[in-house]
Amino acid sequence: MATKISVYGAEIICASCVNAPSSKDTYEWLQAALARKFKDNQFEFEYIDIHEPSGEAEHKQFADKVIEEDLFYPVVLVDGEIAGEGMISLKAVAKAVEKAVSAS
């Protein structure tokens, strides 16, 4: 079973994360980094623009939450659980992936 990695972000860099990479750059970096770190795992990656979420209700709901609760973006979810926001740490995301893999 694939571990689902969802990255919610926007074209414009979060005002509080001026020196952080863009949401899309973070999404691409996570794809490469997690594939290297977890060679035996399968991942399902998705990028969701918080200003134009896809048609899925869960994407729209969470995108609205990011905006309404002023979460720093990008926000990274691992199997639906927040693993990081703003300046994303590979260590934190990897820990969330390990937890998700051990639970499945």
TrEMBL record:
Matches recorded under InterPro entries: DUF1462, Thioredoxin-like_sf, YuzD-like_sp
Pfam short name (any one): DUF1462
Gene3D superfamilies assigned: Hypothetical protein sa0798
Name by which UniProt lists this protein: Disulfide oxidoreductase YuzD
Organism for this UniProt entry: Terribacillus aidingensis
